[in-house]
Amino acid sequence: MHKPGLLPLYSPSRISTYQSCPRQYKFRYIDRIPREEESIEAFLGSRVHETLNKLYRELQLGQRLGLPELLDSYDWLWRRHWHEKVTIVKQDFSIEHYRQFGKRCLETYYRLHEPFDRGQTVGLEHHVMTSLDPDGRYRVRGYIDRIVSLGSGRYEIHDYKTSGRLPAQGEIDADRQLALYQLGVEGMVSDAKEIGLVWHYLAFGRELRSTRTPGDLDRLKAATIVLIDRIEADTEFRPIKSSLCHWCAYRDICPLWKDGPVTTDKGSKFQVRSSRFKTGNSELGTRDREAELGTPNPDPRYVRAIEKAAAGDGEDADLRSVSREALREAILAAAGTEGAEVRFLEHGQLWVRMGQLMSPDALDGNAAGWVQLSDESLPLLFRQVERARWSATFVEKLQRYLAS
């Protein structure tokens, strides 16, 4: 919570942290509990970003790094910043595997964009800040990887991703981060007539693009204000259990981990280890194999069939049943006012229709537009808030359903 009299200051990553897990948000942004631990995915992403930053800074000075020079810079940055608190969750991957993965991302990007003559780079790691309301009570800030001027008032905001998952276009069009940055650029550049948003998914050698209309940005402002209000009003900061827990630096103090590691849906456990980097060509850690990297995220292109109501016997089960029935009524009432459709099926499964209404007979586990509510589907539901389809209050009721 911000102090009385001071305006709230948020970033897209800060808001996303709350949506992923309110308890992690509290540990990081309210209690400000320091953590030296860093995931290998985050470490790799930082080194790739720094290397691309160096590439374009040299270009601004009239110098173009060759690919071997660029990769040498990456290796130097990797060695310089490596520390013993870097952790690896995916035990099948060695440190060398991650390092080589970053080099492949850079090599792919270099070959695709050489000779780097599209537009003029006018900002690198550029800090932007914008107000979401006329009174300046809701402020958002962030850092843009690269801003490009194409001339005639046309600009692009570029963002580099080292994730091993390629999102669908619908996710890109609903992304909050770069759209908020667009608001900042519009306030910074007086001649901006058109701003494009560009994501570079380096592992795939793909560019994903999106544009936002003034109406889209107005809805984004309103939805983000709702989310900030929800965060500011939260007093419980309940933890959310998901596969993201295995990448969290606060596992040692999280109540969900008090009885040991959180298991995945298949019952397996992720093991976290800290690793030391060594130079040379020797194999480090466990065996190396090709696979997706990056923090796992739920994929809204597919209907989830994950969560079932907890089974139990005796009095405790009866109490849970009463609680769920009460929540069902509250959720159905909220859905009626939200224009959403909710269906409760066997085994306590809760399905939510994301768009136009359709016959419940179509709920065969693959019906487009339906999602079975689970811990992992919450980020998808929050995106509906961002797109001003649902209110934060309604999503909160769904979240409480999961926790009951």
Describe this structure in words.
The protein is of the alpha/beta class. It is built from eleven helices and twelve strands. A hairpin with a 7-residue loop joins β4 (120-131) and β5. The longest helix is centred in the C-terminal third of the chain and has 25 residues, at 314-338. The chain is globular.
CA radius of gyration: 23 Å
Count of helical regions: 11
Instruction: Please summarize the sheet with the most strands.
Output: 6 strands, mixed
- Rough outline: globular
> What is the strand content?
15-25%
Euclidean distance between termini CA atoms: 26 Å
What string, H for helix and E for strand, traces the elements in order? EHHEHHEHEEEHHEEHEHEEEHH
The number of strands is: 12
Structure summary:
The chain has 404 residues and is of the alpha/beta class. The chain contains 11 helices and 12 strands.
What key phrases describe this protein's structure?
404 residues, alpha/beta, six-stranded mixed sheet, three-stranded mixed sheet, 11 helices, 12 strands, 16% strand, globular
Write the layout of secondary structure elements.
Layout: E1 9-10, H1 12-20, H2 22-30, E2 38-39, H3 40-60, H4 67-81, E3 86-88, H5 95-113, E4 120-131, E5 139-151, E6 154-161, H6 169-173, H7 177-188, E7 194-201, E8 206-210, H8 214-233, E9 273-274, H9 314-338, E10 341-344, E11 350-353, E12 370-372, H10 378-386, H11 392-403
Parallel strand pairs: 1-5, 2-3, 6-7
Antiparallel strand pairs: 3-9, 4-5, 5-6, 7-8, 10-11, 11-12
